[in-house]
Fold this protein.
Amino acid sequence: MAAPDPTSIAGKAFPLHGNFDHVVVGAGEAGIEAARAAATGGAKTLLVDEHPLDPGLFGLDIPYLFGARFDAAILNASRMEERIVTARPALMAAMEDGVEVALGTAAWGGFVRGQASRALAKPLLGLADRDAAWLVGFDRLTIATGARDVVLPFPGWTLPGVMGARGFDAVLRLYGAFTGRRIAVLGGGALADGVFAAAREAGLDVVARLTAPAPLRIEGREEVTGLAWQDGEQRQTVTCDTVVMAVDTVPMVDLPDLLGASIGWDAARGGFVPAASGVIAMVGDVAGTVPAMRAAWLDAALAEDHALVCACEDVTAGDLRALRPPRYLDAAGPQAGLAALGPLNQDQVKRLTRAGMGPCQGRRCREAVHALLSRDGVAPLASHRAPLRPLPLSVLAALEEDPTLRANWTGWFGIAAQWLPHWEPAPEDAEYIGGRLSGEDVVK
Amino acid sequence: MIVIVGGGVTGLSTAFWLARDGHPVTVVEKGIVGWEASGRNGGGCTHPYSPLFREEQRLWPMMDELLGHPTEWRPHRLKVALDDGQLDRLWKSTKLATDQGFEAVKLDRAEMRELVPWVGDNAVGGIHWRYGGHANPQRTSQAYAWAVERLGGRILQHTAARGIRTQGGRAVAVETSAGEIGCDAVVIAAGPHTAALAAPLGHRVPMAPARVEMIVTEPLPPIVMGGVDGNGLYGRQTLRGNLAYGGGPHEWIDLDGEATPRPVNSPVVASLARRLNELFPRLGHVRVIRSWGGIVENTPDGRPILDRLEDPGNVVVASMSSVGFGLSPATGRALAQLVLQGHCDFADLSQLKLSRFGNLPLDWRSRQGWDALPV
């Protein structure tokens, strides 16, 4: 029995910056309540929330569709933190209950033991602020990340001024940084009611509200200047600077998926919803939302082949149907289009068309692509991968690393004979030249 | 009918070359073609230690045309060294290619920076390999599959091979989750599952599965030669502009029946980011948007097994020992020859036979320190 392969993950530690009985991700109402209950019960509890966001994420529409309708105040982290505490007074009570609260802290990774991940001593959560990433250990985890916006790819949706209901709510009420005046709202349900009420309360003009799906176009060149839609035989237009898509939200299942939670399709609860399992609980909107008319709205938006579905990678509904390779390849897809694939899988289609592969990590097109692929049955959930928020190399690089891991780093496996001529017998004793080892060479 | 078990690049390429020669082929794939390690890897096409290297280099420039779909193949590699130790190692692996007549050029830091503007003052220089290259793994895997179908071959996805029925020293059928498929020959190219499929035939194919991982950044403006790596990382800038890099600790695992475990990531993704930031210190602001995992298998010496068995004599066993993507055009052609004529006429595969492990102790994984950790 030899010592474990030094170039493998065996025996490598992942230094922790804290170890908690209970971690809660998401400091909305449900998350704060869960954290307070845990702390009151005597658990060492950490409550993290990604707001105030790294300003770069606003531009990437992460986690909500912000539509660039915010002012420079969002750049000031400490002022934004004050605003968030003001907007959520229960945070103060949580701190008084003994909850450790970390604002401006995103959960980008979750690592638990499993069939292909056996080296972890305990479950870990990857966290990051604007400067650095770190790991914490947890015994119990409550995911309260809520829901994010469903984007409807109607013409003009990428113009500054097009927001989602959650993006609008965050910019208006959490950050107090909303810069629009005249608003059109899409949606006929409770979500749109909420947008309507919040806008009125803030003294904004709500100039139109479309309660049912219709062919529509968001107008403007540099930014939103109006909304036009077909109302029976009549074409209607309004002048506005903001269009809020408030048809539906979708549970933010990225962290549950990363942690291996069982996630099933339930159209009545917002789409893919996760099940609690073992030490991981879901509370609030992440556990399921209310039914909305998402499918009908998406059908209307996706009807035309030129609908731009994935803005990051410039993929239209027609490109998806034809399974066309990205434009830089200037090539046709297979003759049969999507039918060339057999049962449709969003990850496979993503890799071939690049829809959902861009810097917004598919947040703006995930539901539209899924709807397009689910005509003959619900396509499986497209996977989520770490980092769940796009983190700069320098931020991830700041994560504390076990010196043993670094000292034993190899480019690929560290099997010396693999890198020497395969037309000669494998030597018993050879030098590894397959990649650079840091520090001492451990593989000979 | 030639049945190929495994719809990864090795099996698909074999099917392609056979179908192109007019032979009836069926590929049996338990999931989606190219879905495991074949579709998620560094995309490197530069393997001078392989007897298939020359054929790899000859074929890649033709693959788009042969397959009828773009593979995103681009020629040449740039290797950046951050210290003299790294440079020394790079020259050692370079010598394998230059000894075979391929050309490599030394670059100083300024010359490297002309080609790779992200390189910093910490680089000592590097090497321009005027050979090798890189391609898009998923696009290539899919291109093989569509080419096979266009040539009249059959690809059965979501169909698991359960066994191989023999009669009189020959394989006569492959048993699958969708019924039996009669066959004249079989190729087992099922990655880490190859061992389990060969065992009932009386052959021990020693291999250990492992999980490996990579990271991907947001796209950057494409540089002139995207196949650049170093600092213990393998990878490339994709044609779209993303940086895709891997390396570092792998995790030895065990399989759980016929399923391939979910290839999760670990906190090693942060170490990958650290090394990439060291390699390209000007890119600290560039965002990592994704990571991948993949399950590969290694043989005890890390080298392929490409062998036609003696009994049953119409079965070919293929494992590329964790390095299969780039060589796949050549591997498939070699395997097609093993199926049809019993030997490869363009490469010396004599050292890649299964028999080299004939005296391997049963507990070889433990002896090499390759045991999976307990779950």
Observations:
- Residues 438-444 of chain A have pLDDT under 50 and may be disordered.
- Chain A touches chain B through 86 residues (CB under 8 Å).
- Chain A is about 25% helix and 20% strand.
